[in-house]
Amino acid sequence: MPVITCIEDLRVLAQKRVPRMFYDYADSGSWTESTYRANSADFQAIKLRQRVAVNMENRSCASTMVGQAVKMPVAIAPVGLTGMQHADGEILAARAAEKFGVPFTLSTMSICSIEDIAEHTSAPFWFQLYMMRDREAMARMIERARAARCSALVLTLDLQVIGQRHKDLKNGLTAPPRPTLRNLINLAGKPRWCLGMAGTRRHTFRNLVGHVKGVSDMRSLAAWTNEQFDPRLSWADVAWVKERWGGKLILKGIMDVEDAELAVASGADAIVVSNHGGRQLDGAPSSIQALPAIVAAVGSRIEVWMDGGIRGGQDVLKAWALGARGTMIGRAMVYGLGAMGEAGVTRALEILYKELDVTMAFCGHTQLTNVGQDILLPGTFPQA
Fold it and tell me: Is 211 in the active site?
């Protein structure tokens, strides 16, 4: 086993162990992938102020996200097809998050169902919802989340239509993969993955199979989104979800100040500044670029979080310094899961925590809650 020191190490190992179509699904963006690349590159451009001769004892990265105590301001983001990165992937990721002390969010497009996660974990988790044409199915899904003791609902707003992801189209992405010659050749080189899949019954979208009517091809993400995701999504629908759910509501996919104001007016508890990991509108700004203006506009009235491009604890610290009171990680978790299963997700969280903790110390702080924009070098970070 190689020594794993950073998220990049996990990515390299995952690429070796996960079938190509599922690795590419996670590690890609739409069209030219310019926004996907900018999400990480723009973090790297931000420089930190190093301080010395400061007492660095008794450090804490603890905080809260929508009232929930967290070991660090990081939650696992909803990622579709996580159970195709590793057998029972959502269960393993949820377990790792629970043991580490951060929230786990289950995607509507998961391989393991809401009930699967509830059965295999003890801490409340979050559930992510897409607005679908079938309102009865949505209402049932909200009720299932409530029955599973989910403590927050994450409503994703930026996938009314799906962005064109070239790699998914070229790979013929399905769950499970179709037995084509190309797929069989690729799978022959992934014995660990195949053995895991042979040992589980969870191979398709279990949140949907048996719960939603009128879907012609349950294996295809593109077919499902084109057929069921509702392009008519409006703020009235957000109000419908809020009333139906009645609990903590997080709105994900905010990239504009005007939309942030509307989110506040909707009564949401938190918003996530997010461009869907660069997987929707290619050419949109990076999430970290969009963050400061949104924080300046609404940060005093609602919790503002962000996701996109986080590949280490320094990125979490930079986002916090720019006003994000929470972050969400998708790819960093997926790399760990694909590389080493539950242990890999745990390792990803450990890496993020250590980098966050040590970097905070080098910047002269022992309590994350005291960190502000002053840890960043002027002229290197985006401003409102």
Answer: no
> What percent of the chain is helix, strand and coil (3-state, nearest 5)?
45, 10, 40
What separation in angstroms does the CA of 215 have from each of 13, 164, 210, 211, 228?
Answer: 35, 21, 10, 10, 8
**Closest CA relative to residue 288, chosen from 298, 278, 303, 279:** 278
Residue 153, classified by CB atoms within 10 Å of its CB into exposed (0-12), middle (13-18) or buried (19+), is buried
Residue 313 CA to residue 151 CA, distance in Å, equals 26
Confidence grade of residue 219 (pLDDT, cut at 50, 70, 90): low
The answer to whether the beta carbons of residues 375 and 356 sit under 8 Å apart is no
CA angle, 98 as apex, 369 and 326 as ends, to 5°? 30
Note the pLDDT tens digit of each residue in 168-191: 999 999 888 999 999 999 999 999
Check if the beta carbon of residue 324 is closer than 8 Å to that of residue 304.
yes
Query: What SS3 state is found at 260?
Result: helix
| Maximum distance among all Cα pairs of the chain, rounded to whole angstroms | 65
Written as six digits, the tokens of 352 are 């993020």
From the CB of residue 53, how many other CB atoms can be counted at a distance below 10 Å?
6
What would you report as the CA-atom Rg of the chain, rounded to the nearest whole angstrom?
A: 20
Of the chain, the percentage scoring pLDDT greater than 90 comes to 88
pLDDT digits (tens, 9 = 90+) for 267-320: 999 999 999 999 999 999 999 999 999 999 999 999 999 999 999 999 999 999
CA distances from 107 to 113, 262, 283 (A): 9, 24, 25
Copy the structure tokens of residue 87: 């057998």
Count of CB atoms situated within 10 Å of the CB of 344:
26
Exposure of 1 in the CB half-sphere (CA atoms within 13 A): 8
Backbone angles phi, psi at 98, to 5 degrees: -60, -45
Q: Which of 86, 166, 276, 365 is catalytic?
A: 276
Report the distance separating Cα 288 and Cα 199, nearest Å: 40
Distances 239 to 129, 208, 235, 244, 346 between C-alpha atoms, Å: 14, 23, 6, 8, 36
Residues 6+ apart with CB under 8 A from 67: 248
